[in-house]
Design goal:
This protein is α+β, with helices and mostly antiparallel strands and 257 residues long. The protein has two domains: 27-152, ATP-grasp fold, B domain (D-amino Acid Aminotransferase, Chain A, domain 1), CATH 3.30.470.20; 165-256, Rossmann fold. The chain has helices at 58-64, 82-92, 99-115, 152-155, 165-172, 191-203, 220-231, and strands at residues 5-6, 16-17, 31-40, 45-51, 69-73, 118-128, 134-136, 139-143, 176-179, 184-188, 210-213, 238-244, 254-256. The strands form four sheets. Strands 3, 4, 5, 6, 7 and 8 form a six-stranded antiparallel beta sheet that branches. α2 packs across α3 (99-115). The longest helix is centred in the middle third of the chain and has 17 residues, at 99-115.
Amino acid sequence: MLGHRLVTKQTKADGLLVERVYVSEKVAYKDEYYLAMTIDRENCCPAIIASRHGGMDIEAVSEDDPESVIKLRFDYSAGISDSTVESVASIFQISPTEVPDLRALLEKLFVLFKKKDATLLEINPLVRTHEGKFLCLDAKFSFDNAAALRQKELFALEEKSDRDPSEVEAEKSGLVYVRLDGNIGNVVNGAGLAMATNDAISFYGGKSANFLDAGGQATKETMVDAFRIILKDDRVKVILVNIYGGMQTQSSSCCTY
């Protein structure tokens, strides 16, 4: 495995170079489940997604057996309620004696979710051993990038070797840069405006070379860094600048050059 490239539907076409291998103990278990805590953005609250089918793609499970998947919204201030625990226990089809362990697991997940500014804590699979214990065999955690200053220790663990060097360089300058596959560079301040700008370019037949959000507090130095990063891209034939000028004043203007 070492030295080879791992290609999955979650990687780029050429995959990721395997530089480390993690080894874990083999565990015998009776049942496997899916359990996740995430943000329901439509309803502005956290939510738990649970299924009695673990080790599988949750999207496929929800299509094949929708009755086996539940989504439970809960109050961020109140935390995990009795009814939430009961609903997860019901979908997992576990005995009453195992409910306290499930409750402890859900409460620990919520503490982690809240304390570390998480956007997704996904355990897949969560297994139940023959002794009735719950164990996490695999997990995927995602955290709010906007919390990087609060979570310095956590974000210091990020593996950046598989990221585009320009994206890493832009991040150091306080920019949000994503490389795309077109030839029109663009510099925009504000994520929503940047997305709208990319959409407008696409609508009129163009293709953006990048998404770049300079942020609402962009300075002269920030803009210099933005242009420097874009101009390093040999594919870029023209740069579209769309700067919203009303972040700190009562009047506003939108200028495109």
